[in-house]
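Question (not urgent): is this output format expected?
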Amino acid sequence: MGSFARVADAYGKLLAFFALCACVLLALMMLMICADVLVRNVPVVPGVTSLPWANEVSESMLYLITMLAAPWLLRRGQHIRVDIVLRVLPDRVAWYCEWAVDVLAFACCIVLVAYGAKAAVASWSSNALTIKTLITPEWWMLAPLPVTFALLAIEVVFRMHRLALGPRAARDDAVSAG
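Got this back:
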């Protein structure tokens, strides 16, 4: 196994770990929502009629689940992909379109890394707070964005490598159901 393949394998394991973290967060979110519904309807703990922070925490968890799972889904080809045009183009033209989209995706990811990092650092520097039921530093929710898009950019590079080594046609990953 070459060094690039070893790096790709290790990176895949990192993304799988992040996906597992997303699953754990999803399970915790489900338990939290069930607990909130339970205490609203059954007097389990005297005086506790709801978990007022549950909606806010579940919103944050949904965001983090998305950020953790997105690079893994892209790696597995399980992201949303509209490929109807690619399927009717000649193989070689579709392959060039795949390259064009990968280059565009990489550029977009890098821009989002830069702007996301800038926003997170600015929020951290200004000590900005999010004030809802809970009061939290704003940068806590901004910080995952540049990290996720850096991971997505790395995955796009791996996709380009696989595209270069594969057949000169549209990818078979994320093929539409039709």
